[in-house]
Design brief:
about 160 residues; two-stranded antiparallel ribbon; binds magnesium ion; alpha+beta; 5-stranded mixed β-sheet; 60s Ribosomal Protein L30, Chain: A
């Protein structure tokens, strides 16, 4: 038996819309515009999903949950994460660790980080300590500093026993 560790990276960006509710890392955040997208547009969760799929060599979020599919309209991205985690499990992969970064001048991540870690870790079947999150401000630089939207990255490490 050999231990196989693989790593994947995920990225996502969505523009803000005053007409939408902000959901980030599975947590609803009041007082800021939401994100435009086919699902709940949770950019951080989408980045985590892509990182997991990348780590397991299973393509990307669009391969599995196309935004042309009506089933995914307005869906909670935590459900997509749960599907993804199930897929990885069926291929023999176990999630080891996920690290995410959100670049945004608003919302500030600080007050929500622990709740996000709890929300994201549950569908992956790992403790919250296996998820790390970082919030970065742009200090007003570029389109994200102009509060046009936000960007998220994630890196996932997965483990599989190979014969
Ligand atoms: Mg997305």
């Amino acid at each position: 038996m050999n231990d196989l560790f693989q790593t994947g990276i995920g990225f996502d960006s969505h523009p803000f819309s005053e007409d939408r509710r902000m959901v980030l890392g599975g947590v609803s955040i009041p007082g800021v515009p939401g994100l435009v997208g086919h699902s709940d547009a949770d950019a951080l969760t989408h980045a985590v999903i892509d990182a997991l799929l990348g780590a397991a060599g299973l393509g990307d979020i669009g391969d599995h949950f196309p935004d042309t599919d009506k089933r995914y309209k307005g869906i909670s991205s935590l459900k997509l994460l749960a599907h993804t985690a199930q897929l990885l499990k069926s291929k023999g992969f176990k999630v080891v660790h996920v690290d995410g970064t959100v670049l945004a001048d608003r919302p500030r991540l600080g007050p929500y980080k622990e709740k996000m870690k709890a929300k994201l870790s549950k569908p992956m079947g790992v403790p919250p300590s296996a998820v790390n999150l970082k919030g970065k401000s742009t200090q007003g630089l570029g389109p994200f500093g102009q509060q046009a939207g936000l960007v998220a990255w994630a890196v996932a490490t997965v483990h599989r026993r190979s014969k």
